[in-house]
Amino acid sequence: MAKAKPQSKKQRLKDPLNKHSFFEDVWDVARQIPKGRVTSYGAIANYLGTKMSARMVGWAMGASHFAPAKVPAHRVVNRVGLLTGKMHFGAPDAMQKLLEKEKIKVENNKVKEFEKLFWDPAKELML
DNA sequence: TAACTGACTCGGC
DNA sequence: AGCCGAGCCAGTT
To answer: Is the CB of A22 under 7 A from strand C?
Structure first.
């Protein structure tokens, strides 16, 4: 699977073939999130070159259910560390439980020390 | 076919 | 410092 390399947004989205890999790219990046770390939709979007469309990342996460491999969507939160998508995990606190299982402290639907645990693909994966 | 919505983000007030 | 509006892409109604 491609390593989610950033490319021109128009180039990717314009081509139906490449478009299909948009999901895989997002999933791929999500899978690369180290255990015990979290990232934001915007960070992934930015890494993919579609930083203006963080919504699509979230939407792609929603589709992660169809992903060929498991995607740690629980490690992806919004820019303030809020567990915005926890309701989509089936159970109201499934996401929080998964996070706590990785020693990530969650309080009031928000990741504690989010800035410290924040993992930016564009920075960590560089390039 | 057009309009609305959404697991977001940024900038202005 | 907090609230409000606009922009983004795709899928749904």
So the answer is: yes
CA angle A95–A55–A78, rounded 5-degree value: 40
At A20, the pLDDT band (50, 70, 90 cuts) reads low
Q: Which amino acid is at A24?
A: E
Distance (Å, whole) CA A25 – CA A46 = 12
Q: Which domains does chain A have, with CATH numbers?
A: 17-65+74-120 (1.10.10.10)
**Residue A48 CA, nucleotide B6 C1', distance (Å):** 20
Give first-to-last CA distance, chain A, whole Å: 18
CA of A95 to C1' of C3 (A): 29
- Smallest Cα–C1' distance to nucleotide B10: which residue has it? A52
A112/A92 Cα distance (integer angstroms):
18
The answer on pLDDT for A13 being more than 60 is: no
In this prediction, residue A23 carries a pLDDT of 86
Specify the pTM.
Answer: 0.84
| Distance B12 C1' – A70 CA (angstroms) | 40
Average pLDDT over residues A6-29: 59
